[in-house]
Write a structure and sequence with these properties.
Layout lengths: L4 E3 L16 H6 L2 H8 L5 H8 L3 E7 L5 E9 L5 E4 L1 H4 L5 E4 L5 E11 L4 E6 L20 E6 L7 E13 L2 E7 L10 E3 L5 E9 L6 E5 H9 L4 E2 H4 L10 E4 L1 E7 L2 E8 L6 E5 L8 E9 L5 E8 L4 E8 L2 E8 L6 E7 L10 E7 L4 E5 L2 E6 L8 E7 L4 E9 L11 H11 L7 H8 L3 H41 L9 H12 L5 H17 L7 H15 L3 E2 L12 H7 L1 E2 L1 H14 L5 E4 L6 E6 L2 E7 L5 E3 L1 H12 L13 H18 L3 H14 L4 H13 L3 H14 L6 H10 L1
Parallel strand pairs: 29-30
Antiparallel strand pairs: 1-12, 2-3, 2-5, 3-4, 4-7, 5-6, 6-7, 6-14, 8-9, 8-11, 9-10, 10-13, 11-12, 12-13, 15-18, 16-17, 17-28, 18-27, 19-24, 19-28, 20-21, 20-27, 21-22, 22-23, 24-25, 25-26, 31-32, 32-33, 33-34
Length: 745
Amino acid sequence: MKAKFIFCLPLLVLWVAIPGSDSLAAEKNRSPAKAKAEKSTTQSVEALTERARQSVVVISHFGRDGKEDGIGAGVIISSNGLIATCLHVIGEARPIKVQLQDGQKFDVTEVYAWDRKMDLAIIKVQADNLVPLPLGDSDALKQGASVLAMGNPLGLKHSVVQGLVSARRDFDGMEMIQLAIPIEPGNSGGPLLDMEGRVHGLLTLKSAITANLGFATPVNALKNLLKKPNTVPMNRWLTIGTLNSRDWTTIFGARWGQKAGRITVETPGSGFGGRSLCLSTKKVPEVPYEIAVTVKLDDEAGAAGLVFGADGSDKHYGFYPSGGQLRLTRFDGPSVFSWSILSQKSSPAYRPGDWNTLKVRVEKDKVLCFVNDVLSVEAQEDNFAGAQVGLAKFRETRAEFKNFQLAKRVEPAAKPPSDDLKKEIAAELDQFASKPASDLVKVLQKNPEASATAAAERAIKLENEAAQLRKLASTVRHQAVQNEMAKVLQGAEDKIDLFHAALLVAKLDNPELDVAAYRQAIDDMSGELKSKLPKKADGQVRLKALVDYLFTENGFHGSRSDYYNRANSYINQVMDDREGLPITLSVLFIELARRIDLEGVTGLPLPAHFMVQYSSKDAEAQLIDVFDGGKMITRSEAEEIVLENTGEPLRDQQLKSATKKEIIVRMLHNLTSVAERSETGTDTQRYMDLILAIAPESAQDRLHRARLRLQARDIPGAKQDLRWLLDHEPRGIDMDRVAELYQTL
């Protein structure tokens, strides 16, 4: 399996130090007296830290908006202002600042030397009398030698960590020092020190698989830069790879650049879905007009393509590939509810992972969208907020653009193959399963471009058919869960199996979930708990035993560091990991209470913090915070929790026990919130479908699903939900707005 490594992206330093020793020849020939003298120079970690901290700096680079865009580390290597770091720490074409250990800050005046392949840079500040660290001989490092790292991992300044040299490795012809030491993202550029305080390298790579594996660039490569610097003043450095401001304006952040005639973009933008725009300053012709660009995405899970009808802010249209399909969208504002997918479909002309030419023709009341000169989408649209055009990028995708064109008419890139040639190529491709690939290649080489395109289109068609079949299978499974949930939640409250219903919530996302296995697991838990109870245990004894069993003996606890992980909403994973949300822990508590004959335990749906309530004939109701280890709390403490979470006082009606159906709906709402945080609208709609199957009378949920359906361009579905609202006229809904929206569809 191919190893995976990533740059320790700029944050703040954490650095691994590697002990430098004398060369092997010198080691072999030195006298015992000299060895003893040299050994005495080895210092303690405390002494090395005190000495080195004044030479380790924080390096910040800034985006074009003037905001800090990344932080890393560096090490002073000369008293007159030279500082060594990694090239990716300073970022090409970025303003850079340096902060010393004593708090002094300096602007970088020049990039003294840099090497992209080695990921090294030496920067200079206007400062004198700095305290440099000596450079060691990285060629003399021994495998297994102790090393010291000092820096600012994740912003924790001047942290110290010890490790050792694991090995030497070759990466694309470049030797690196392998280190056994925990490394965090953002830890690039810091010095590697031996136990005598000499610098032997700069940390640059970490494993993407494990925390205790990192790599450093040897300091001897840095010495070569010092011998032959390639100095660039900052006023010139800031123009490297930047967009020409006379041609382009960027909004919503992200890193846009331009080299060799190509525009590149990476990192998410600040707009919804990681949206970022790069708008052309060229004058747009009167309609009709056309725009085109050739684009390649590194990740089809994201999106990148053309923008038109833009107002220079949140409103615009977009045409771009996403997830292997082509989307035409409209943005009417900054949020998910102002985003509409006008069309989303596959095209056999689109080549995932390759260069594709997108073209949009804008007419007075119509938009035509092409991919590789094949019409993909035609839509009746005339609601253009502005006349600006350009490029767009979404989510984590990195993209490249070339050949951007804006004109009354953009000519096709190449003449399409004839119908006869298409038939000939198709006949050859029909033999793919029965004929050796080498024979097919020989025949298809007669027209390689058309043949390669046809093969890619055939692959896309098959992939789309497979995707549609997977979607059909998923729909069938989800409908089966809905049908089963409806049966489980029917009948009297005391007959409803809450635990089974909670398992069905998890099964909605995990069709392979073994429901029977987890039903057996909770029976085993209750059996173990029952065996600990006295024969005539009263309610309080049973309650205490249940609390002790879950939270003390078995370590169930509320999830604090990973609260919005979906696993916290799946009762099976809560049982496996012993970690969950207030409501899932409450379901487990309630179900175990029922199984050990502890009556009077019900769910308490406090706003933003679900709890459990125990009621008995002999005492006042007790409130139990299962998220906090089964802690018994008072009414006043509950009021404080509600006030802190919502800013509103606790009302008496909120102390009413939740029905089992209400508990399941609340669990689904939690999943809806998590899905919307990650902007996965299809998941959101799946949860909303189940909510409305359980509680069809919920007007707010009807309206929410109507919006989701509109965004997905499911017009019949949206009209169905809006029609229900118009027929029932529920309170709290702006019915005039609903009627207006319904009439426009």
